[in-house]
Amino acid sequence: MRLRCGPVDGRTGRDQAELVIELSEQQIIDQLAQRLADAHATVEPDRVAAVVHAQYARFEGRPIRDFIPLFVERSAKAELTRLGV
Questions:
Q1: Which DSSP symbol is given to 7?
Q2: Whose CA is closest to 53, among 82, 83, 75?
Q3: Which pick of 3, 9, 34, 36 has the fewest CB atoms within 10 Å?
Q4: Rounded distance, CA 24 to CA 22, Å?
């Protein structure tokens, strides 16, 4: 993905930065879902992804985003373990 220096579609620099952060965070969450699906081969990948995305949704709108992927991973692993998978 290539970033432009000037505004795109009327977005300010801050809006663009937030968009890049969102995309990066989403990529991390997608990679996390894939890693957990690989680790839990007996579970359908769609089920693992649903657990990961449900845990991720809990952090919607939270202003500090740095540790959210870590929290999502821990919560999703615990949920998958609790489900006995």
A1: -
A2: 75
A3: 9
A4: 5
